[in-house]
Amino acid sequence: MRLYLIILVCFSVLKFIPAPQLMAAAVATHPSPAIDNLCASANSMSSAGIVQLFPVIQGPGTNAAMVSMASPGVYFTLDGGWGTYLGNAIIQFDGNEYAYDPAIGGVLIFCSQGIYPYVVTPADESKAIIRGTVTVIATNLVPVKIEIADAHRIDIFVNDQDMNALKDAAVNFAGVTLYTDDNGLASFDRYPLGTYTYSVSYPGYISIENQSFEVMAQVETTKIILNRYVYDASFYVTSGDIPLEGASISLQGIVKITDAYGAVTFRSLAEGAYDYIITKAGYFDEKGSIVISDGNVFKEINMVSITGIYKPKSVNPGLFPNPGNEWISVSLPENCRGKFIITLADIQGRILFESKIDVTTGQFKLDTSGLKNGIYLLTASGRNFKQTFRFIKQ
Length: 394
Fold this sequence. Notes:
The termini are far apart. The protein is elongated and about 100 Å long. The strands form eight sheets. It has a four-stranded mixed β-sheet with strand order 1-8-2-5, with no helix packed on it. Strands 4-3-6-7 form a four-stranded antiparallel β-sheet, with no helix packed on it. A four-stranded antiparallel β-sheet has the order 11-10-13-14, with no helix packed on it. The protein contains two helices and 30 strands. The chain is mainly β. It has four domains: 19-147, Immunoglobulin-like (Sandwich); 152-226, Immunoglobulin-like (Sandwich); 230-302, Immunoglobulins (Immunoglobulin-like), CATH 2.60.40.10; 319-393, Immunoglobulin-like (Sandwich), CATH 2.60.40.3080.
């Protein structure tokens, strides 16, 4: 009879204990202390809602573990390897900072549903800073266990292909972006052991994207070589409507001679401004400059003869428009009718297209929308007639 009475009394007491006290009793089996000491809520968040259990999951990282509760939130615990981490730390979460107290052992943050990044920074600078994200779903508590580990430093040097240091190159390492100093160095400190990805970019250079990097030593050092973007500069030299073969073009000290089509191409040029001078016996010199920026450059030059100054004519009067984009119209002499073979070649003379057409009006159109920007040669061959036209696609 006495035993039944004791059980009945205990049941009655438990029935009327407020919810927070019940929760504290439930947490007593966990290494963390009572919930009243664990709650830490941002000013914009409601502290309503009671959690009855705090199971531990591995972290950091993206977590979606769930425990039944009245309000959603995240419960952070810090592990020092042999148990609760005994040092101080700051937890950054949803734009707020929360102090971790080793005497308490955890931080409970109430929040709304969503995906939140977090940063855990131990006060001890010999310990790594831990970064991750956590997903809060419905009215579930997400417990996150942070493993505190020793800090490691990663030094990334960025140079060009001539081994010159690149200042202000953007280096993204594990989601954190730093800019290189005068020595081309970006130093990432306080990272735990592990495998990370990095990307490096610099204006005018080919970027390196999502490369894998394994941190194993106390200080890791790596050198990154970035290659410049390079482009082509093509010149087309004429005298009136006639291509000028044998003209000498000097571009920043590099000299090339125009071919039978009056064309020459300088390849693998970095972005920047370039001065040129064009010379040919019997013609006035032509001087000028071009600017290469994010694309190939095409330059047309008409040279003036010393012995007979001409009045410039339209280039290739048989084509319109020239330069063109989507299409060109080709006009032939009035007496040119019948079957023609149309051949399209690039400026080096490589055949790109050949077709037979029947010309009845002395004019036909070609679709040039599929061609890359550049200089092309169009040859129309018929009975007692053959002519090559030059046009520019841009």
